[in-house]
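*Target chain*
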Amino acid sequence: MPEPPTDGDDPWWAVVRRLFKAHQLPAPESSVDVEELGQLEGKLPEGFANLSKNSAFVALLRRVDLSTSSDALRRQLVRRPLTKTSIQAFEAALGVTESERMHLKNLREGTTSQYLRNEILQQELRHLRAIGLISMKRSIYEIPLEFDLSEWAELTVRGYEYLRLFDESSSAD
């Protein structure tokens, strides 16, 4: 982790002070010790700190920060801040492809018949299972050539939440 700026007037410190103040913690002046960071981390939603370790999420934030839409995104987040649940869903969503999202929607809507097994589909199901959006009723490698997806997989609570948040964000556009 890079060292914080030594100049207490650096804009970085304004952000740090605002963050600490928002969580009713005494803001550091020109250095942050481990105990202060621990207090702040204790106020954050579960899983929030893990986002900083998620390279896809960090890359996304860097792209947003470099884009012209970063101010619009900040305004939207102020109007509708991320909750613990939406942060988890957003984290899970970072690697979801359009094809995977269609499998999730099909499971939710019950349009799961006439699936054809192939390697790509099996990889997609493994990915959705790995990020907690579906659970498998039986082993993926046992799926027959033609099958009904609902007989093999089901949405988890997290999967339903992901779709709800995705639908909300799509309708807000």
Observations:
- The chain has a mean pLDDT of 78.
- The helical segments are 11-22, 34-43, 55-66, 70-79, 84-93, 98-109, 119-130, 157-172.
